[in-house]
Amino acid sequence: MTDRLKTLFIFVDGLGMGAADPETNPLCDPQLPNLGKLLANAVPLDACLGVEGLPQSATGQAALFTGMNAPKAMTRHIEGFPPARLKEIIRHENIFSKLRKRNQRCSFANSYWIDDATNIPPRQQSVTTVMTLSALGGVLGKTELLAGKAVNHDITRWTMHTRGYDGELIRPEQAARHLLDLAEENNFTLFEYFLTDRAGHSGEHELISQTLETLERFIPQVAAFAQQPNHLFLLCSDHGNIEDGSTRTHTLNPVPLIALGTHAPTFQSLENLTEVTPAILNCYAQA
Ligand SMILES: [Zn+2]
């Protein structure tokens, strides 16, 4: 498998490209030099997709991971978890199912702290959960997390003590190692981080800076994935939020697309969220 393309895709919820003003944009913090450098070279993608109102998670993520204009298909931006009709769209075609058809091994790296990894209540299914259950049959669970073969959504496991986890916290660098190992075993690996959106909605400065500090330590480590031959690193979001400290809502800002390594130039000309999945598939057509 060494000659086949390997991609590591980090999805960061609620991360837009805001003003270069440290007064309003917490991403301009000089304490975040690595993250800042990566974002400075990101391609701005439109997340509004021609539909009025603030872009939202369910339709934005569906657009990102299916390549369809989901807000247009649903006639509005839909927040949170996808409703039944949008779930159908996501199940029908998504990045995992499309890559599986091309015989590419896919993994959703997030661990779920549950006993039955094939059975998640429909009301708790996010876009990535829907597409993972549908295309990959199940999500990663407790066993994989404890073996260092999956990553908790919060990276360091700090939110897990309320859920019955009595293990230790791990450093962002360790979580990055786990993710890099997993990504080596697959052709396409996705990790989702959504505390950026939560922190943005909270408006709490302390939580926002803790969240971004974790990313400052985690993202550069996982971006090093791209330094090997035939390896592609991608990072993208579904809509803005945390980059504008003057509001606790989502924003109309473009979202950053970071592409590093093999095929990275292909991504420089993209303009909106619906173009990401087709561009990725195109890389595998050439691989
Ligand atoms: Zn979102």
Task: Report on the architecture of this protein.
With 287 residues, this protein is an alpha/beta fold. The chain has one domain: Alkaline Phosphatase, subunit A, CATH 3.40.720. The protein is built from 11 helices and 6 strands. It has helices at residues 33-40, 57-66, 70-73, 84-92, 95-101, 127-136, 142-146, 172-184, 195-202, 205-223, 276-286, and strands spanning 6-12, 43-45, 106-108, 188-193, 231-236, 255-261. The protein has a 6-stranded mixed β-sheet, sandwiched between helices. Helix 1 crosses helix 10 (205-223), helix 5 (95-101) packs parallel to helix 6 (127-136) and helix 8 runs parallel beside helix 10. The longest helix has 19 residues, at 205-223. The N and C termini lie close together (12 Å). It binds zinc ion (ZN). Zinc ion binds at residues 13-14, 57, 60, 197, 238-239.
Which terms summarize this structure?
globular, 287 residues, alpha/beta, binds zinc ion, 6-stranded mixed beta sheet, Alkaline Phosphatase, subunit A, 11% strand, 11 helices
Low-confidence stretches: none
Q: What composes the largest sheet?
A: 6 strands, mixed
| Beta-strand segment tally | 6
Written as H for each helix and E for each strand, in order along the chain, the element string is: EHEHHHHEHHHEHHEEH
In CATH, what is the homologous superfamily?
Answer: Alkaline Phosphatase, subunit A
**End-to-end gap:** 12 Å
- Remind me, CATH topology? Alkaline Phosphatase, subunit A
What ions, cofactors and ligands are bound?
Answer: zinc ion
